[in-house]
Structures are given as C-alpha cells and as structure tokens.
What we know:
2 copies of one chain form a homodimer.
Chain A: H1 9-28, E1 33-35, H2 42-46, H3 79-89, E2 96-98, H4 103-117, E3 133-138, H5 142-150, E4 154-161, E5 164-165, H6 167-176, E6 180-185, H7 199-207, E7 216-220, H8 238-244, E8 251-256, E9 268-271, H9 274-287, H10 293-303, H11 306-335, E10 342-343, E11 352-355, H12 361-370, E12 373-375, E13 392-395, H13 402-427
Parallel strand pairs in A: 1-12, 3-4, 3-6, 6-7, 7-8
Antiparallel strand pairs in A: 2-9, 4-5, 8-9, 10-11, 11-13
Helix pairs in contact in A: 1-13, 4-5, 7-8, 11-13, 12-13
Amino acid sequence: MSELEALSVRELNERLEHLEKTYGRFKEENLSLDMSRGKPCPEQLELSMEMLDVLSSTSPMETENGVDIRNYGQLDGIPEAKKLFAELLGVGPEEILVGGNSSLSLMHDAVARAMFHGVKGSERPWVQLPNVKFLCPTPGYDRHFGICELFNIEMINVEMTPEGPNMDQVERLVAEDEAIKGIWCVPKYSNPHGITYSDEVVDRFATMETKANDFRIFWDDAYTVHHLTEQPDQLKNLLAAAKEAGNADRVFMFASTSKMTFPGAGVAVMAASAENLEFLRKQLAAQTIGSDKINQLRHVRFFEEVESIEAHMNKHAAVVKPKFDQVLEAFRRNLGGKGIVSWSEPNGGYFISLDTLKGCAKEVVDMAGEAGVKLTGAGATFPYGIDPKDRNIRIAPTFPSTTELEKAMNVFCVCVEIASIKKLLGEK
Amino acid sequence: MSELEALSVRELNERLEHLEKTYGRFKEENLSLDMSRGKPCPEQLELSMEMLDVLSSTSPMETENGVDIRNYGQLDGIPEAKKLFAELLGVGPEEILVGGNSSLSLMHDAVARAMFHGVKGSERPWVQLPNVKFLCPTPGYDRHFGICELFNIEMINVEMTPEGPNMDQVERLVAEDEAIKGIWCVPKYSNPHGITYSDEVVDRFATMETKANDFRIFWDDAYTVHHLTEQPDQLKNLLAAAKEAGNADRVFMFASTSKMTFPGAGVAVMAASAENLEFLRKQLAAQTIGSDKINQLRHVRFFEEVESIEAHMNKHAAVVKPKFDQVLEAFRRNLGGKGIVSWSEPNGGYFISLDTLKGCAKEVVDMAGEAGVKLTGAGATFPYGIDPKDRNIRIAPTFPSTTELEKAMNVFCVCVEIASIKKLLGEK
C-alpha cells in the first residue's frame, strides 16, 4: 500500500490544508511560466547562430550540380541537402524530398493530397470514401490529431506499451478495416512518453497485413538525433524493413531541423520510396516552385556531415539534460513513493509524461495555470482532446530557465498532490 | 493589305526557301537557350546579395514586439513584415498574412482550403458541390490553371481586353452561375500581355453581383513594383474598392518578393479582409507552425521601407529593360509591317506576348525548340493548355544574356515568318 492511501481521512485533510496554504502562497507570487510546448530555450538557439554566417554576399551560390540556388528550380531539394538527410535517416538520396521549414506542413500536405488525390495505389481519393480512419497510439502528439480533425478523419486510439504501440491491436485493426488508411507514429523518444519503438514493433509495422492496399504509416521521426544520454536509443529503419518485406510504399517518414537549428527557420524532409515521391512530385509541382534552397545550402554548409549534426546535438543535450534531470528529481523528491503518479524517464526527445490518479489531470493543469504555470492542456495528448482516464500530463522542460523550472515544478507537484488527496478523500 | 499577304505564291515560295536556309544554318549552331520561364537573370540576383549580410550571428533576433524570431510563434508573420507589405499593397497590417517562400503555394493552399472547408460564407466545402468553376482571363498564367486542374475545377475562358478582362462577360457569367466560385487575375503587368487593369475594371470587380455568395477574386499582384519605365502603370486598390462596396470578403490578394530578391528564397504574402484571414488562420494553424521568421526579418532589414523597394526595383528595371527593348526591336525589324503578328509592349512585368496568324503558334514554338531555343509551350497561357486559335506565344526576355537574346530572337523571328508563309501559302 502506498503512502498517501495509507493515511487516515484526518491525516489526509491535515496534509491537504498544509498544501493548500503552500499553493495559496504560490498564487500570490503572480508567476508567469510557460511549459506548454516543446520549445528550445535561448541557449539552445545560440548554438546555431553561426549558421547565419556561413552564407554571405560573397559566398558561392551554386549547388554541386551547378544550379544557382538563388533562382527557381530544384522542386524537391538541392542534391547536397538530399544526401545529408538521406544519410541522417538511413535512406537513399532518391528517397528524400526536401520541403519547406516544417515537417508539420509536410505531414499536413501529405494527408491533404491523399484526401484529394489518394496515394500511389489508391483506387480513389480518400475524400470520396464513406469514411477514413487513422490509428492514433495514445498518448501522442496533439498536432497529428489536429490534422485528422481538420480533414474529418476518424481517430481510433491505440494503447502505447513500453515497446511502442500495442501491435496486437494495430495488426487486428488494420487487417479488419479497409477504412483505416494510416497511423501516426513518433517512433523515437515518442511524444510524450519518450518511448523508442523496439525492433519487433518496427518489423511488425513493416510486415503486417493491411486490408487497405493504400495504407500509410506516418513515421514522424522528429527526435531522431535528440538524445539525452551517451547511450542513445536505437531505432530500426522502417523504410529498409518495409522494402525487405515488399511493403516499401506504406512508409512516409518525416524529420526536420526545427530542434537542431531554428524552429520555423529550419529545413524539413520527407523520406519515402522513390515511387511514392514520384507520385507526390506531380502534385507538388502545382503547389510550389520548390522550397528555400538558400536555407537548404545554409544548413548543409553549417553541418557538412552527419557527424557534425551529432556533435551539435550533444551540445543541445548538455543544455537540456540538466532540465530533464531537474524535473525528474523534483518528481522523486515531492511525489516519489506516494502512490499517486507515475512518470517517464526518457533517453531523448522533448517531453516527460506524467500520469496522475484517474480523473486528476485536468484539475492539476487548471490549478497550475491559476498559479501562473502554463502546462500543455490536459487531454491534448489524446484524439479530440479527450483523455478517457483524465490522467496524462505532458511536461516540456526545455524552454524555462533552471530557476523558473525549479519554481514551476514546486507549484506543479503541490497541485498534483492536492488533486490526488481530494481524489483519495472522495473515495474514502 | 499587309506585306506578306500581298506577295504572289512564287514570291512567297522564294522567301520561304531563303528563310529555311537561314533556319537550317541556325540549327547547325547547336544552340541551347531557355526562354521558357519568367526567371530573373544572374545580374538581377546579384542586386540582392547584400541581403545575405543583414543578419549574422551577432544580430539582434527580436521582433519589435519582443518575439525571438529563432523560435516558434507568430503563425501569420512578424509585425514588421506585415507592416512593410501592408504599405506596399495599400492595405492594413491586420489584412496581411505572411506565409512561406511562394505566393503560388499561398494560392494553391487557399484553393485547397476552399475545396475542403469552404471560405468564409460558404454553405459547404466546395468539394461537396456538384461542380466548381473558375473564370480564367486568357491568355493568362499557366500555374493558375494548373491549380484548377489539380482540384478538378472547371475553367471558363474570358477574353482579355487592353483594359483587363472583358467585364461584360465576367459580370454576366458570375451573375448567372452559382458554380462559378473564383477568377484568376494578374491585374498589373498581366502575364503574358503586360496589361494593367483600368480603374473601371477594378470598380466593376468590386461592385459586381455574384450568384455565389462565396465568390473569390484571386488577385495575383505578382508584378506590383516590377516597372520597366519611369511612368509606371497605376493599379486601383481592389481591396479598398471592394470594402467600399461592402464586398471586402471577395478579395484574396497575393504578392511575393520572388522577383525582388531571390525566387524560392523570398517572402510571400496574402492580403484579405481581417475576417477572411481570421477564417483562414484556424486551418493554417493545423498546417504549420508559421513561416520562416528569420527570412522575414532579413527582408525587412534589407528593405526597411517601401521607398527602398522602389529604388531596388529601379535597379532591376535597369537590367531587364534593355532586354525587353531588344526583343521589341527584333520584332519591329524582322516582323514589323508584315501583317503576320501583333505583340504587346508592356510597361512592366516579365513577359512580352506575341500573337501569330491563326494556327501558327505551336509550329513556331516547335521549330524554335528544334533549333535550340526553348520557349514556353504553345497553349500554356490557356486553360488545359489549349489555345483555341493556336496564336499566343509568351516571350520571357529576362533570363538570357543580351548576346543569347539577340541570337534567340533571330531564330524566333525566322520561325515565325516561315510558319506564317506556310499558312499563307496554304490559304492561296
């Protein structure tokens, strides 16, 4: 039996009274701390400032294939950018499309195009089908779910396990239902749990039977080099595995430099079979004259090679690891052993996921907000913003300073304990 | 009666024989000249090279409202960029959305969103209607037509006059047919004719009755400051006129710096009523975390104010005006007074439009191509690539050097005359 549950009603009430006084004092401090999004902090942004110097008015402006990057052309990216990202993602340059500043846009547009034109192998555009469904391992990334909502795609929750999505569930669902056309995955340091999918999960994704023959795995490899330890997680290459299984076309991979260089001024890429990309390029050509090649070259010149990206990401880790540790330490100190929460201890990514007692998450987030600590909305990590158990809270430790973080965690932990005690009292 | 028509069959045959010898000699030169797209030349690109120096690793990175441009945020643009483009387009900053590197993408996405979600005032998404039609003043811009083709939007040709689209036609069509949801316009220095719409045309657009209450004018103000003379054309402000008429929501304006700074690495904007933009922002938020704010600030710092943009565009004019003159001079010298062609003499923009005798355009473009002079495909300036009279050829003088242009025009004029004589002989 855990500590708080073991307390009598009187003891719980005493503890609650004490905590509410503390909470009251926090409110009087008029804090204003934002931990709602996975945003790099200013020290992280400083790490890439020299990228702004690599291209100047006197720099050569040609690609290795002789294209003037200042002019039109190169719809799907310059060769040196394709090469760099191909190496980073373990695919071929012909399997890379470099596009814009945001992998979110690439994902949105991939879904939008599938709705309007279908994907390679579709019998008809998805919008002409009676309904379209996506599997959503939960908790997951709210912006993925937002894209589905925008296009009226029905979302089906799939349980997350420490190895990745529950593949028994996934396999059963995709084998049964032709309307299931896709699944959202953050396979490495998942949002928000920080889970990296096991080789077995990747293999099952690569080989599983799908009723829909135009099923696509949206593999958002957002945190592929965003490690927090020197023993980073290893993710098996899905595109390679799917190719081996004869299912290359089911894979749409996405990544970006948003959290390597500058969010909003980075470079995003999509990786897929050459045939998938050929199909997409025709529609892409009607949408754009290509993405910013100067910024592509700026990134290539800044990084030069994958080893430099890795070295650069070690500098990021040196900034953010202490913040993750600080949050985890606060959890252990304030909430450990009380039997009211569990949390993830990720090896990378941008989030720590905390699960409260059933029915407490919304109250915790609201209370923290009232005390000036803005957290990701409770439920945001679930489709339609509905956490069926109202338990999951996503903590984004990177942006605040360590001083702010210390304060925010103190507030947060008090809120968690208050909500938990109220819940326990209600059950007694 | 014009010169060539006045010749006898024998005289025409002699002239044809002479021209074909000349053409044969051109072919032996193995030329490779590309005049197919409106591309700035390297000298024009050099004019903006200093823009690459205005932001460096030591520059302040905050907007005037204190936002770190290196991080997430500012979905629809930074305030200083909104202000600059608002002044340039004669609208309010709240009527500007700064988005990405390409106005083509903004137009594509505006159509895509209208199809999926409708626009403000739509009873339902356009994709759910039995059919959707757009008016297309012709000849016009092939990429506009490409967007319609992508979304299965039926295109209806509207005649161009020297004042703009034939407004009698436009008014009649939009008043009659609820399926007509939009019209494509390049209102200043139109593509390809170089026509600037008259005040009367703008007013009629602002005030006309439309059967569809969610009709939109796609006002692609691509060449708004791209003058070739010191007495530039003046375009009346459509958004202001439409506001006055109570029709503010029917206007979607677009512009970009693609041909001011760098194509592909510029900044694109959309201007529309604040209500239209509010409607769009909700969908935009699901697509993107915002466009490249560093590049926005780079542009703002490079230009500072509209006067500098105008001074900068004068430098562009100094480079390209001689090329336009060279083409026009070649036309006058080689084709003038022969009664076989007419051409536009624009005050700005990127193109000269030439009309051949009926049924000759495709042959001319093919012949020029065989001699190594690549032109915009005949028919490209019409919906579905079909020029009903096979007459229109779009000449893009900016990219080639003056030496290349001289050669290209010699080849081109010979091709025009050969095709014309064959046509005349066929009629005799």
